[in-house]
Amino acid sequence: MSLEDLCKFGKLQKHKTSAQEIVDLFGVAQRCLKDASQDSISFELRYISAYQAALAAGEALLCCFGCTAPKTNYHYMVWEGLRQILDNSFKDTLILFNDARSKRGDAFYDHADVTSETEYKELYKESKIFVEYVKNRIKKEFRELGKSL
Q1: What is the model's pTM?
Q2: How far, in Å, CA of 20 to CA of 54, rounded?
Q3: Which of 28, 56, 79, 142 makes the best surface tag, with the fewest CB within 10 Å?
Q4: b/e map of 33-72 (b: 16 or more CB within 10 Å)?
Q5: Where do the domains of the chain lie?
Q6: Phi, psi of 113 (to 5 degrees)
Q7: What pLDDT sits at residue 113?
Q8: Homologous superfamily of domain range 3-146
Q9: What digits encode the pLDDT tens for the residues 33-57?
C-alpha cells in the first residue's frame, strides 16, 4: 500500500511540515539518544529512549513526504508509513523498531525487566544509525526543510 493509499484510507493524514517542525523532531531524537546513553537509568528506560529517538526521526521523514500518523495507532502507523518510503535494505531495521514498539509499551506501562542489556545495545546502535541516516536523507532530498539540521 502506498503513502497515498494510507492517507486515502485514513491510516495516515496529509500534513504540511516546516523546517522548524523538522528541527524540533530532531531535537527530540537527539535528547532521547542522549538519555539512552545514560548508565544511571535502567535498561528499560534506555531502551524506551532509544526507541523514541528512532520514532522522532521517522516521524520527521514521514512529515517531509507530506504525511503524519494520527494519534490513534501513532507508533504503528509511523513504521507502516516508513515501510512505504524506505527501500528493502531497511526491512530488518523496521522489524526491530516495530518489535521495540510492543516491548516499549510493556516496559513503560506493564512490567519490569522486559528488556535485556543486549536488546538495549542493539536498539541503541540501530537507532543512532537510523537517526543519522534520516537526517542526511532530509538534508539531501528536502534541502529547505533540512537546512537547519
Answers
A1: 0.94
A2: 18
A3: 28
A4: bebbeeeeeebbbbbbbbbbbbbbbbbbbbbbbebbbeee
A5: 3-146
A6: 55, 45
A7: 77
A8: Nucleotidyltransferases  domain 2 (1.20.120.330)
A9: 999 999 999 888 999 999 999 999 9
